[in-house]
Amino acid sequence: MKTPSTVPLGLVFSALVASRLLISCTSIHEYLIHDHQLSSPLTSFLNLKEGIYLFNNGVDPYSGGVFRHSPLYLSLFTTILSPSRIIASLLWTLCDSIGAWSMVRIWRARNNIVQSSRDVLVAALYFLNPYLFLPSLAFSTSSIENAVSLLAIMFACERRTSASLLALAFLVQLSLSSVVLIVPIILLLITSPISQLVSPRPFSGKWTQSLGHVFELAIYVLVLTLASTLVSGDFLWISQTWGASLTLPDLTPNPGLWWYFFTEMFDHFRPFFLMVFSVHLLIYIAPICIKFQYDSLYATFLLVGVLGIFKAYLTLSDPGLFLSMISLFPEIYPYFRHPIVTSLLHLHATMLLPLFHRLWLTQGTGNANFFYASTLVFACANGAALVDCVWAGLRIAIGEQVDGYAVTQE
Amino acid sequence: MSSDSPFWLRKLTAINSRLFPRGDANLTRLKRRQALFAAIGRRLPLLRTLLFVAGYLWILAIPTLPGQGTYIDENALLPGQVNTNWNWAEVHAADRYLDHIEKLRDDNATSEQRAKYFAEEFKKLGIPASTQNYTFSTVFGDSSGTNAYATMSAPRSPGVEAMVISASWLSRTGEGAGSLNLRGVSTVLALAGFLRRYSFWAKDLVFVISDDYLEGMQAWLSAYHGISQSNLHTNDLDLSSGVIWTALSIDYPGHSFSHLGMFHEGLNGRLPNQDLLNSFIHISKYSGGVPVILYDYVDHQEYPDQYDLLPSWIPASVRQHPDVKGYLYRFKNVLRHGRYQARGIGSGVHALFHQFRIDAFTIFALPATGPHGFHAIGRIIESTLRTTNNLLERLHASFFFYILTDPDNFLKIGLYLPSAILISVAMMLTGLSLWVEAGWTTSGDKKSTDKKWTRRKRPILHVLAIMISTHLLGVTMFYLVNNKLFFRSRICPVAVMLITAVPPIYAIFIPAASPSDAPLSVVLKALNLCFASTVISITTVLNFSLAASMAILLGIPLSVSPTSSRRARPKTVYYIAYALFGLGWLVLCPEGVRKAVLDWETLGVWFGPFLCIVIAPLVLQAGVVCILV
């Protein structure tokens, strides 16, 4: 293997971007664009194009129940860009590049260094992760959301408060589930991104600062909401975009856990379980942020992992972001409990998902339960990865195992 | 506890102290866990062997497993509940068509002339008909032909759904070797004239007389479904109809027939819904009076002489035993099924329909001197069509995953799936134990009980690089094989075989691991086994026969590649053995390679690419393990 220090980041990065662009210019997207695993009704490029068409022809796209993208996308694609193939290829490649670049910057901020030999690996793991790569080739807007969330985290690591909060406000506009990330990112803003996992200590930031941040974020969100309302003309967009991830009107299959559950459910239980599923996402915020109060970046990372399992309208990008972010925390690797089991579960899941999807919808010999079973395997794999990261993040504080001593939990 | 207390009390006390020990609860928990893991670890070789043996025995036992009788699950089908009207007048019509077709054959009529004649005949019957020209260009050159088809719109419905009745010009005898399906074609023509007279059709009837063996139907189906295939040149169909739910393919090559054989395997291992097959069997047996067999294997009770297959040194009392013959009969059925399914080629023209989610099978009239002819086959097909006409939704109720051991008995997925899974679990356990072995090393005296375990680094990135490069090599090989030049001379396969020299050369250039790290070979073998196991266990659902073949062929060879240098002295010999095992087919069976390439190009059968890109590289990796030792 080449010694990493001899590989210049700029060269590898541009090579990765170039190859990424080349692949997206082929006709490969025709095979991927309809795939349920790569884009959900909330992130599908086809739905986006339909909405833009309706919008351009003077029809309210939110009146039909097909278009569930944020009005910000509408304004972006009707004024600045057009939703053509070439533009899309360029834009999605740009998003991937922004995401990879943000990862490198987060890595540098965490270690408080100007550059390191690991930069290349961090960038490559973002570019070459199939969970991120394929949705991006399918022009799923989840890639844009990933880039924006990484931007928010990066700015927070670099203490650029306003930029981070603005990115966060955009992120909430684009995908409501991301509210889960608000608390850890604000905590990250008032503490430091440098790794504290080895030496836990009480929260060191100033609480009073966070009030200002919350206020600033509220203003950004309000302004963006007003802008969205201006773009779409009325408030209907709120129930069609934000409301969709709370009320799950579209039960198109995806690799997440919601769709099958609510397909099978009797209607009179629906509101209750919708509440349960939505609140369930929120209950992770407090414990993770309290337990990892000394390392907010790690808390953010774990909450990204929670979103990657339990989010409504999941696409492969969401767990993909979590998996790629593992590359930011090499200090925990020796403390993983079952990395081979997690990898094998992921290997099984990545093979089962497309296979059972095909058995059900193309070949017709399987049924919805097959695909549902594979999404369960996928959720187990993601759960195993998350649990292992939590374990390793806590275990590292105790240090290496010494012969003759055992570590137990009281 | 006194020593004179009864045995059972002492045992109970021991169990009690095991279950509820005194002392630090956490410590005992840890100790218990360690003891459990150690116990499993100690017995792992035995467990692995047991799993392998159980898996292989289970596969062998598949023909004897207590399956269950077939039954019809979809109540709407109502097989055999109608009076059939097909009679001697229709048989006469079929005979007249046969006369014409035999004349066409004797005049050496071209595809186009034949198709034109069929279309004309359909039109004479008052059914809209047309022809379709097609050309497939493959590495073996172009092949073209002309299909004829007719669509009869249903008198009772808007034509949203359709059923297909088809016959190919070439019979499936010898997998399309050249015998003509003249009576099958005459049956389709006579059926068209006959079925048109009735008003109870709720689905459009589409009659297709396809050219060649498989190619014609592939061209017709692609055009019908609007699928563009880069190497197929054809015109759009003039006539269209609804969504096809079921299709029958009629194959009647002989003069008369004694049994109706059923061929049901589709492309890439898909099987039709069992309800369709069971309805046909039911109708044929009880309404038509013709016994049904699987493929062309007659029943062992009727024809015991045909199953005298065992070598003569086995005592006659064993050879002639009805149970042994029954096993051989079912074994032949299962093996035939496995051979079609594993290679993904399908067993007849019906196989092509499966690509488009259409349940279909071939009715094969087993050539014999009697007693059945047009009269029987017509009635059975009429009744079968009336049954499929009853469907209100696609066939879905019955099984899609099954193995028919004989026409009346089948195995559910739960009965045969564990066989391959057991082998794959054994491989996975082998891989995981090697993974653990690679990560830990004992220092100090080996014999002392107080071994000191230290962790060591596993060179995962190097190993992944080797694995990915062998699979990329597989892709390269596939492109080389899928090339015109490859089949020009006999040297090319040997040249492509030389590709196997690349992984060891590549492996040599990997810098030697530091002695504190785990050896490359152990980690490579661990990951290779884990990956192979995953591939096998996942393929079981898609194509059980392929997965079982992989389990049989790869299970032991991948697990026994030597990891200690003492046992692997002639490294290159070991590697060459693995390379021959993985890629020897390139040289040894050129016909198979030819067919696999042709099937991939025309029909999209996945077997060729899968073999090149997944299976062969897995074997090569096992070979590289021997080199790296």
| H/I helix tally of chain B | 21
Helix content percent band of chain A? 55-70%
Number of strands of chain A: 0
| Total domains of chain A | 1
Indicate the proportion of strand residues of chain A.
Answer: under 5%
CA(first)-CA(last) distance of chain A = 44 Å
Low-confidence stretches of chain A: 1-5
- Number of DSSP-assigned strands of chain B: 14
Strand order of the largest sheet of chain B: 6-2-3-5-4-7-10-8-9
Radius of gyration of chain A: 21 Å
Provide a quick synopsis of the model:
By secondary structure, chain A is mainly α. Chain A has helices at residues 9-25, 29-32, 45-56, 71-80, 85-111, 119-127, 130-137, 142-157, 161-174, 182-190, 207-232, 236-247, 258-264, 270-282, 285-291, 296-310, 317-325, 339-363, 368-395. The relative contact order of chain A is 0.11.
Structural notes for this entry:
The complex is a heterodimer of chains A (410) and B (629). Chain A has 410 residues and is mostly helical. Chain A has one domain. Helix content of chain A is 65%, strand content 0%. Chain B has a nine-stranded mixed β-sheet, sandwiched between helices. In chain B, α3 (88-106) packs across α5 (182-195), α13 (460-481) packs across α21 and α18 runs antiparallel to α21 (607-628). In chain B, 47% of the residues are buried. The A-B interface holds A 1, 340, 344, 347-348, 351-352, 355-356, 359, 362-367, 370, 403, 406, 408-410 and B 26-27, 29-30, 270-271, 354, 357, 394, 396, 400-401, 428, 432, 435, 452, 461-462, 465, 511, 530-531, 534-535, 537-538, 541-542. Chain B: The chain crosses the membrane at residues 415-440, 460-481, 493-514, 534-560, 572-593, 605-628. Chain B: This is Gaa1-domain-containing protein.
